[in-house]
Design a protein that fits this description.
Number of domains: 1
Number of strands: 0
Radius of gyration: 20 Å
Shape: globular
Order of helices and strands: HHHHHHHH
Oligomer: single chain
Strand content: under 5%
Number of helices: 8
Structural class: mainly alpha
Largest sheet: none
């Protein structure tokens, strides 16, 4: 899947500077049009679609953002509780309470991380369902999401996501190196955001399709 996703992404932007610049513009505009473009990739469009119909891209991007915010509500709530507890402990002026607050924060952040990972497992499939059906409700159809993951197989599914995370780490290292270069590094990063999103979307698309859904 990595190889095909890379080729898909390369075909989408390499040698197509006008399209690449349009994707950069889509990124600059709060990334909403870019998210809308990602939706098209998740629908399985091949080759990579053109950057057009900006109104639809904006609307789809907003819908995508709404879906992700809803998915992350549990994480946001837990994080808010942790912040309140930490702030309350710090405001008491009691060193013991402050230390307890720090301990609570560390444990809480671990809980937030685990919760985010668990939610991510389901949200990834949910987003594809949303992209393909156009129904926000389908993004939270847990029975259908579980059925899709079961068809893929939990072990292959998790392994595939680990591979994607490794790709993300490699991408992050490349970006970190580029960012050390004044101005040019930031510009290069701006041009790499869209290709990375396309790569991830295509990878997830293939993972979803491997279930035969």
């Amino acid at each position: 899947m990595v190889g095909e996703s890379f080729e898909y992404t390369k075909e989408a932007v390499v040698g197509k500077w006008a399209k690449w610049v349009m994707l950069v513009i889509a990124t600059i505009l709060l990334a909403l049009p870019l998210m809308g473009y990602v939706m098209k990739v998740l629908r399985g469009e091949k080759p990579a679609p053109e950057v057009e119909d900006w109104g639809t891209l904006f609307i789809d991007g907003i819908k995508y953002l709404i879906v992700m915010i809803i998915w992350m509500i549990p994480v946001i709530i837990v994080y808010a509780i942790i912040f309140v507890v930490m702030f309350a402990g710090a405001m008491t002026g009691d060193p013991t309470a402050a230390m307890a607050a720090v301990g609570t924060m560390m444990i809480g952040l671990l809980v937030v991380f685990v919760l985010a990972v668990i939610i991510g497992l389901f949200a990834m499939i949910g987003v594809v369902r949303f992209a393909r059906t156009g129904s926000i409700g389908e993004a939270f159809n847990f029975s259908a999401i579980l059925a899709t993951i079961a068809k893929i197989g939990w072990v292959p599914y998790i392994i595939a996501l680990v591979v994607l995370i490794i790709c993300g780490v490699v991408f992050g290292i490349v970006v970190a190196i580029l960012m050390m270069i004044p101005v040019i590094g930031w510009l290069a990063y701006l041009f790499l955001i869209a290709p990375w999103y396309i790569f991830v979307a295509r990878y997830v698309c293939q993972l979803y399709d491997s279930a035969g859904a």
